[in-house]
Amino acid sequence: MGTGTGDAMFTHMTAYALLAQATPEAQAVIQTLQMINLGKVLTAAVIIALAYGLNHLVDNTIERFSEGVARRRLVLKKLSSFAKLSIFVAASFLVVVTFLAGKEEVLLGVMGTLGLAVGFALKDTASSIMAGILILVDRPFGVGDRIYFGEVYGEVKEIGLRAVRVRTPGDEMVSIPNNKFLTEAVASANAGSLDMLVGMQFYIAVTEDFQLAKKLVYEACVTSKYVFLERPVNILIEDVARDSAFTTVITCKAYVIDTRFEKDFITDVTERVKRMFRKHDIQAPYAREMMVEEPERC
Q1: Regarding the domain delimited by 140-188, which CATH topology (the fold level of the hierarchy) does it fall under?
Q2: pLDDT at residue number 243
Q3: Could you give a GO molecular-function term held by this entry (predicted)?
Q4: What is the DSSP string of 16-61?
């Protein structure tokens, strides 16, 4: 028994000696772990749950309200991004304070040690978070904007802490890491405005009445329920070489009243133009050459 007791005392003394020789950062971590108890864990869990619920409440409330106020929809969506970022920062701060309240020296030591470790382990994630903050501050684009980024085109649905989520016209949700926007070019089609310029091209044979065709395209555009008439409607005409022959291209440039109706606007105008061209016998390129005469009946 005496030998066992002596070994135990020697082990404890050795452990205390090792702890005494530990670095300040290691001591801070040990003190922090000693401060963790069930009450603080439950408090932190409640803070996280409340932040998660508040995040969804803010997101859903702003989403519903923005649909009822069309002209303020993009502004409200940008407000949603700022609100969610603020909730995340506030919740993170409260969780840290919950565990380290009254221990400023320990707080500084732990934050320094963990910050260094997390910085190396999650440098890409940290870079994306900082890039997300820069996007919200610098605003090269915002929630609701239509952007071109590489081969991706679509509406920005969310500017998150790690990635920007873009919904394509094919209803696909694409996530792009925030730090990509710091080194690559991005184009915004509407730059924060609700309306957006849309280009549509129509091809006719060079022998057709281009003045009539231009008039029909203009009428089809300005009578669409999706056109934004407070902006100009421009009709351009040019002859281009296609397949070793010339074709007349009529380009219609007009603004859609809401970026969400881009494809509906194009479809509506295209249908109107096709009906009017058919009514006035305006042929597409090579249409006359491709017509096959019916054989004479005996």
Answers
A1: SH3 type barrels. (2.30.30)
A2: 74
A3: mechanosensitive monoatomic ion channel activity
A4: HHHHHTS-HHHHHHHHHHHH--HHHHHHHHHHHHHHHHHHHHHHHH
pLDDT band at 45; cut points 50, 70, 90: confident
pLDDT tens for each residue of 157-214: 888 878 899 999 888 999 998 888 888 899 998 888 889 999 999 999 999 999 999 9
Residue whose entry in the numeric block shows the structure tokens 């963990």: 114
Pairwise CA distance, residues 291 & 283, whole Å: 11
User: Cα–Cα distance between 151 and 158 in angstroms, integer?
Assistant: 19
Block residue for tokens 């057709």: 208
Domain with CATH 2.30.30.60 in the chain: 140-188
Q: For residue 227, how many C-alpha atoms fall within 13 Å in the half-sphere facing its CB?
A: 20
User: Edge-to-edge strand order for the sheet containing 234-242?
Assistant: 196-205, 245-256, 234-242
Q: Which residue has the tokens 């470790």?
A: 117
Rounded to the nearest 10 degrees, how much is the dihedral formed by the CA atoms of 74, 189, 231, 276?
-120
* DSSP helix/strand/coil, 283: coil
Which H or E run includes 157?
Answer: strand 152-159
d(CA 199, CA 221): 11
Q: Which fold has domain 196-286?
A: Alpha-Beta Plaits (3.30.70)
Query: Tokens for 197?
Result: 């310029």
Contact by Cβ (8 Å): 194, 258: yes
Instruction: Mention every residue, 6+ apart, whose C-beta is less than 8 A from residue 248.
Output: 203, 204, 205, 206, 208, 210, 213, 237, 238, 239
Query: CA-to-CA distance for 174 and 155, rounded, in angstroms?
Result: 10
